Amino acid sequence: MTKLKQFIEENNNKNIHIAGFSSAEGSAILEFLIMSGFKNLTLHDSQSEENLFTSFQETHKELGTDELKTKYEKLKNLPYKTYFQENYLEGIENADLIFVSQAWYKYSSNDKMKGLQGKIPFINMTNLYLELSPCKIIGITGTNGKSSTAKLISDMYSASNFTSYFAGNDRLNRQVLDKLHLMKEDEYLILEMSNRQLMSVSSSPNIAVYTNLTPDHFDDHGSIENYYAVKQNLIHFQKPNDLAIINLDDSVILGFAKLTPAKKLYYSLHHDLEKEKIEGAYLKDNIICLNIKGRVTEIINKDELSLKGSHNLSNAMTAILASYHEEIPVATIVETLKAHKGLRYRNQFVKTIRGIHYYNDLNSTVPEATIAAMSTFEEKDIFLILGGEDKGLDYSKLAQYIVERGRTKVILLPGTGTDKILRELHKENASKETIILKECLDDAVIYADTSGKPEDIVLLSPACAYFFSRYTRLVTHGDESWLDVISQ
Questions:
Q1: What CATH architecture applies to the domain 14-123?
Q2: Which CATH number fits domain 348-483: 3.40.640.10, 3.90.190.20, 3.40.50.11190, 3.40.50.1370?
Q3: Model's pTM, two decimal places?
Q4: Distances (CA, A) of 428 to 215, 326, 391, 418
Q5: What pLDDT, in 10s, does the model give residues 198-210?
Q6: In what order do the strands lie in the sheet with 435-437?
Q7: In 92-202, which ranges are E strands?
Q8: What is the pLDDT of residues 159-197, one digit of tens each?
Q9: CB 110 within 8 A of CB 89
């Protein structure tokens, strides 16, 4: 009996509740349960019934207009007991199983459920993937680069002869829970795994990939130690025949290596793995090389990568290792590296207006990610638009980088994180002329447009939390809408 059939048989008659059923994760779980024949379902959503479509629309950006309406109508007319805003979570204490999203604990409307932990099993989408998929699972985590790396690995597998499935956390990715019934043992499931997803896992992926770790998510974990401990779960349950891909240049991740019995492959921008007799990927004479079983294989010159910058070089190395280990041909790997276009909102080129180049790096919500984005424009003058709310991060290195780099005008929008950045810039004696305070994104863009010159870079890279929801119209008006204020 497959793990999926066993799960269905053991739970089909239980009283199952789904909290947040209109969300991306909640609706994916609901669709999976219905496909699996579950009927004793109770649905909860903190939205009012009147606002349900708006909520559904906001969390399902991957759907086209017609598909969105079709799925919503199906969701709205399901024959299950449903509780909305005023009666949210009514009767949930009587559940045998509760399905939740990865960030359920962050919302005060869910406080009632916190008292049920330990009394009633809680299950999320990631638990279902890890526990029920028969595929070989590749899991990717890190503070920065996990989305980009996961998508790059997925592209390599898609270009190969293997059948693969991809479940990422980008707003435009579709989940694949509805494909669990189709998955086979000789196929691959590629999972991007956030800190929140790793908090409740009891198994690890067959291939565990780490990008990097820097302080983040103090709002979720309270301390950097707790954050790192959660990230260890990626390898905590691995077995000897599994694989861990380790960043040799990251001291924290390097320390994790001893925690798994799995085989290890390493990657580094600074070590010669052949000389040091370490298996993995490294850079030599600008060429990404592999040292595997005492044999060196040249893969690609770094200048041939479609995406530039040291962070993209590291991402490429991890994807190469995750693919080469599973015998994807080098030619397929190289072709993918040359063609890969990167992710939306990750140093994404938007357009050129009057010679000024505009880039959207909206997903960079930590200072290290903003530094990485800036580093790809080494010889250019940058107008850097950033700011937002604080989540307990240290902005001293970002301020130091900005001042040492020079050729940067810092355009700051209001927020508690902005206040910390401003203090750090003053500590670094940043000149007053390089710091510009604006109240809204439109004003920031207008300033850059009127002050810039041809070949300058305008980089939207917040380095803080909640910039997306506070300052942009991108969700409803499209990727270029932040430039609409410029007369073209």
A1: 3-Layer(aba) Sandwich (3.40)
A2: 3.90.190.20
A3: 0.82
A4: 21, 48, 22, 15
A5: 998 999 999 999 9
A6: 348-353, 356-360, 457-460, 382-387, 408-413, 435-437
A7: 97-99, 122-123, 136-141, 164-167, 188-192
A8: 999 999 999 887 677 899 999 999 999 999 999 999 889
A9: yes
pLDDT band at 487 (very low <50, low <70, confident <90, very high): low
Q: What are the extents of the domains in the chain?
A: 14-123, 126-339, 348-483
| CA-closest candidate to residue 285, choices 295, 298, 294 | 298
The CATH-assigned architecture of domain 126-339 is 3-Layer(aba) Sandwich (3.40)
- Tell me the C-alpha distance between 250 and 28, whole Å: 35
Q: How far apart (Å, rounded) are the C-alpha atoms in residues 474 and 464?
A: 17
For residues 25 and 101, is the Cβ–Cβ distance under 8 A?
Answer: yes
How would residue 488 be classed by pLDDT, with cut points 50, 70 and 90?
A: low
pLDDT in tens, 449-463: 999 999 999 999 999
Cα–Cα distance between 56 and 75 in angstroms, integer?
A: 10
What is the spatial distance between Cα 402 and Cα 406, in angstroms, rounded to a whole number? Answer: 6
